Known about the structure:
Arc Repressor Mutant, subunit A, Rna Polymerase Sigma Factor, Chain: A, mainly alpha
Amino acid sequence: MAREDVADFNAVFETHFADIYGYLAFRLAPRIEDARDLTQDVFVAGLKGWKTFRGESTPLQWLRAIARRKVADYFQRNSESISVEAILPSCQAGPDSPAVERTERLAVVMRSITAESRELLEEKYIDGISVREMARRRGKTEKAIESALGRARAAVREKYGQVQARMGESS
């Protein structure tokens, strides 16, 4: 099948819609309406760019890259200064499910670390990109990427602990 075929993109849409929506909802929690809007924007951009998709990554990785840019644009456009303190009240809203609360806390934490750290962690643990490939893409050594990942993980642990402490919970 040719990549230009809209039916091909429809299959990608059907296969990956939930993944992309979840990816965006996690980053924009509790702004669910905005996550829905950005999900639509990602797939519109994906359809427009489908002819240029070269297959160097999986369609899901390609869509997540589009989504990552849409999230960055969203926060830049809205001139939001993201901090743990600014977002923390939203963590207390919603169902009492411990899994939901942990997810919301992690979303707060991920928005409070640097964009570079967030991108490295997403590439490694969400997109499944190897350290070697991450280093190649950035023109850095594997050791440099491993060090940056270590710092990013440490930042997440520290911020997560701060969120738990502010909410009066134990680790």
